[in-house]
Amino acid sequence: MKKFLNILLVFFAVGGLFTVLFFGIYGAVQSTKTAIDENNTAAELPLPEKTGGLRGQLGIDKNINESNIDEYLGRDDSVYRDMRMLVDTASYEAIGGDSYLSGYVDGFEVVPYPKLIQATGLPPEVGEAYSGNTLFSRQDDKIIANYKESMDFMEYYFPKDKNIFLMCGGGGYAGMTKELLTELGWDKDKIWVVGGYWYYEGEHNIQIKHDDNGVISYDFWKVPYHDINFEYLNEK
User: Fold this and answer.
1) CATH classification of 53-232, choosing from 2.60.40, 3.40.250, 1.10.3470, 3.40.50?
2) Can you give the pTM of this predicted structure?
């Protein structure tokens, strides 16, 4: 009988230790999951608010911009879009930028704004903007889809059920993209224009441009670039 009681005591002791370990591990996992959820989805975002001055005229946000975008990367409830071309026809070197996509912030995917709709209002110093095919055109102050797939493309790369963070070289294309999306029916309070890569000094820089003793090269193969091949679209 005594031997049987000893066995029972050992059984309950081991079982109790297992229970403590199980719930301890489970609690740690849940705490980690909660922290991840808070970082990626639960953190409250300030409503978009234009900053002052010239940057505000470009639509750049006062609260979320190049200076702190790192704090808002990797959210499950958001998408990140850089609106530059790999090689722009406009000469942005004239205003201290780069016509070539010299780098981007990790987490952003590149969608060329000039192929969405004709870019207007560029600084005269940069010369002619891209003038090729576009998904949309502006006619009599109305936006017209040029292809049957135009809206499908927009809804795929700029999902309406997500927060949208927009960036480009200096901020102009990003601001124009928000204006386009808003005119097409997107919620302006879910779109942030976070400014220009040229002014980004954060920790998530993916460098594309390289200078090897004066020889310039670009690692375009690194860029998550979503070009638009109009040859395979159906005109309306």
Assistant:
1) 3.40.250
2) 0.82
